[in-house]
């Protein structure tokens, strides 16, 4: 059966942890979804976690995935995180799923604005989300107005 990989989720969190369980069925703990970052100065460094999920991939076929962080203002890639999925056996009538979890430490952010996370499968974009970065003093001015 030839299946097209499907995008399920791509989100940014403050932190993501995987807790091992006695029954070998680990629990994923997602802490505080992040829609934007308010920073005291720019350029800055941010730490956050990425959670991604895909499904409906073909058993016996290797898929190369990549999450790219793009500065939307400059249309410039500032980070890339490769990921591969392969399942060699299973019931082809049941949709398989894959998860990607990564803790990003000290990602350099140069400017205020929108940053896109884009998920690629075999170099084709299949999904995206974004976060925004705001300078603290600008946020204070807007709130106190």
Would you write up a description of this structure?
The protein is built from one helix and nine strands, in the order E-E-E-E-E-E-E-E-E-H. With 145 residues, it is mainly beta. The strands form two sheets. Strands 3-9-8-5-6 form a five-stranded mixed β-sheet. It has a four-stranded antiparallel β-sheet with strand order 2-1-4-7, with no helix packed on it. Strand 8 and strand 9 (124-135) form a beta hairpin. It starts with 5 loop residues before the first strand and ends with a helix. The model has no long low-confidence stretch (mean pLDDT 89).
Describe the global form.
Answer: elongated
How large, in whole angstroms, is the Cα Rg? 18 Å
- The H-and-E topology, N to C, reads as EEEEEEEEEH
Kindly, what is the distance between the CA atoms of the first and last residues, rounded to a whole number of angstroms?
59 Å
Low-confidence stretches: none
Widest sheet: strand order? 3-9-8-5-6
Number of helices: 1
Described by strand count, sense and barrel closure, the largest sheet is: 5 strands, mixed
Report the helical percentage.
under 10%
Global mean pLDDT? 89
Q: What percentage of amino acids are in beta strands?
A: over 45%
Strand-pairing-aware structural class: mainly beta
Number of strand elements: 9
């Amino acid at each position: 059966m030839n299946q097209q990989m499907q995008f399920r989720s791509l989100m940014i969190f403050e932190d993501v942890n995987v807790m091992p369980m006695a029954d070998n069925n680990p629990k994923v703990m997602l802490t505080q979804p992040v829609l934007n970052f308010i920073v005291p100065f720019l350029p800055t460094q941010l730490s956050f976690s990425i959670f991604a999920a895909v499904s409906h991939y073909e058993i016996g076929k290797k898929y190369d995935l990549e999450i790219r962080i793009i500065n939307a203002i400059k249309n410039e890639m500032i980070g890339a995180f490769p990921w591969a999925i392969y399942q060699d056996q299973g019931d082809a009538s049941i949709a398989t799923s894959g998860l990607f979890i990564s803790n990003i430490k000290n990602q350099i952010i140069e400017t205020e604005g929108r940053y896109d996370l884009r998920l690629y499968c075999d170099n084709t974009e299949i999904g995206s989300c974004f976060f925004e970065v705001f300078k603290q003093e600008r946020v204070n001015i807007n709130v106190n107005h």
